[in-house]
Model the fold of this input.
Amino acid sequence: MEKRILKVLKGFAEYHDMTLGDLLEGIVLHAFDGKTPFGKKSRERIRELKKFYGLDLDSRASHHLVESAPRAAKRGARKLSGKRK
Done:
């Protein structure tokens, strides 16, 4: 998951004194029912959190994001290439 999205979700969960898991469960259950999980006040809070964490993505980006290699794997690859030389 994109780290800024995760930060916004964690911030929103913390604001509502709930766990990240509980928040995600609620979002998914609403989505399964074809309903929006957030009211007007919640969307405003999310806009504020997105601005604070520099999240400039919206729903249009959902099918364009590309998974990157984990940091540990990247570091390991550099170490291996360094030993071979």
